[in-house]
Amino acid sequence: MSATPAKKRVGILGAAFDPPHYGHLLLAQLALNTQELDEIWLIPSPERWDKKPVASHAHRLAWLTRAAALCPDELRKHLRVSDVELKLPTYRGTHWLLEEMRRQNKGCSFALILGWDSFVGIPQWRDPTTGTMNGAELLATTRCYVSPRASSELPEPIKHPAPHGGGVVMLPALDAPEAGDISWMTGVAQNQVAALSSSLIRTALKSGSDIKFMFPELQKEIIESKAY
Q1: Is residue 166 part of a domain?
Q2: In what order do the strands lie in the sheet with 8-15?
């Protein structure tokens, strides 16, 4: 009898990516550093009940694809950009998406990669179409890779809010990475990583300020697009 093939271990990193920046890619790298994931799928979110992206679907998808292609080889070869959520007729939320991904990709297991601020809000997550609260169900079925801010007040020890075999994997703080984790970030010093955010970058783009938090080639494309 042949052995059942091992499932591909996939981490889902969803965000508006409005625009994508080094912080998103650093979070992907920190998750890969656990050696518990084979691939990371970067999934831009559509307009949601709680957030309306500024740039268009097409712009954000193109920029994210470009950003992934510019990453160092050891990171890039594990990244996949997916427009699966942008193509949905209606936004259904993260739990619904994960269940749909499992249904469509029987050869994969899926985990969720996110920051601490998002993680602690999961119990309040819901399906915006039905209004059904489904955060507890997501936590009961999904392994989470979580990066806090260095200033986050974390419970000790970290425990998953629901009992299951997946649990929580705490990553290094996103704004306090090891020096080696940011060596590919052009022009960014370790003490500047805390400033990484899409809203900050949009503000800087509007004011014409210099942007340090994305690949220069991508910055040029975004400025020329006049999306912000």
Answers
A1: yes
A2: 79-81, 39-44, 8-15, 108-115, 143-147, 168-170
CATH of the domain at 188: 3.40.50.620
Is 134 part of a structural domain of the chain? yes
Write out the residue range of the structural domain in which residue 114 sits.
8-223
Report if residue 160 sits inside a domain: yes
- CA dist., res. 119 & res. 191, Å (int): 24
What's the pLDDT tens digit per position in 143-181? 999 998 777 777 666 665 554 456 889 898 888 778 778
What would you measure as the largest C-alpha separation in the chain, in angstroms?
65
Task: Give the CA dihedral 108, 33, 153, 20, nearest 10 degrees.
Answer: -80
Over residues 115-148, the pLDDT tens digits come to: 988 998 998 999 988 999 999 899 989 999 999 8
Residue 107 lies in a domain: yes
pTM of the model: 0.92
